[in-house]
Design goal:
The chain has 4 helices and 3 strands, in the order αβααββα. The protein is mainly alpha-helical. It has a 3-stranded antiparallel beta sheet.
């Protein structure tokens, strides 16, 4: 595979499966993308890749996602991920859970 451009779901799913915090509106660091590309090439494609190649692949990948509005620049080498499919499920408070699980009360007469 010569490029990860257009394959963001594949790479982000790989990253999540390997413990990277890839979530909607979370920080995404270029160094994490670089490390994930290196790990993907080694683990999935059985191909070792050098730093220059990893840097090139990551730069192309990030530039494409930035151009498409999926990555929003935040700080140097840091972006905010804008992909709804990586949104965390809402946190339900304990009181709401108990209320939802309680049997329905018959109205008082």
């Amino acid at each position: 595979m010569d490029s990860f451009v257009g394959r963001e779901t594949m790479l982000f799913d790989f990253m999540r499966a390997h413990g990277y915090p890839v979530y909607h509106q979370s920080n995404l660091f270029v160094r994490d993308v670089q490390a994930a590309i290196r790990e993907y090439k080694r683990e999935i494609l059985n191909h070792d890749v050098g730093t220059v190649e990893v840097d090139r692949l990551a730069a192309e990948f990030v530039a494409d996602l930035e151009r498409r509005g999926i990555l929003i620049p935040f700080r140097n080498q840091t972006y905010i991920l804008q992909m709804e499919e990586y949104r965390l499920p809402p946190v339900v408070k304990e009181e709401e859970t108990k209320a939802a699980e309680a049997p329905a009360q018959a109205p008082a007469q």
